Fold this sequence. Notes:
Blueprint: E1 2-6, E2 9-12, E3 17-24, E4 33-38, E5 45-50, E6 56-58, E7 66-71, E8 76-81, E9 90-97, E10 110-113, E11 117-122
Parallel strand pairs: 2-11
Antiparallel strand pairs: 1-3, 3-8, 4-5, 4-9, 5-6, 7-8, 9-10, 9-11
Amino acid sequence: VQLQAFGGGLVQAGGSLRLSCAASGGTFSSYVMGWFRQAPGKEREFVAAISWSGVTNYADSVKGRFTISRDNAKNTMYLQMNSLKPEDTAVYYCARKRSLGVPTTTPQEYAYWGQGTQVTVSS
Length: 123
């Protein structure tokens, strides 16, 4: 399984970005997919996750601002990020969970990771 995240960049506070995660080499549609992020000097943290059927889970810090979605026909997952804040600055990673089931928040439950894409929000 290979995951490739892209779409990051530099944006001013209050702006928007859309991240994409393209999957190949495995079954995409059956598994939970998630977004995590890691800022310098901090641990990797959960952002959002989505089940095969579209059930979603969000970190409290992004609820109401970020929207996760997936297109199983295209083996692609998205993260629409609106009202961005400087504290959203981080490397964003997409991941596929080890097993089927619900969209959980623990990084250790995710087996496959993309290379990350940098999101920088200026104040």
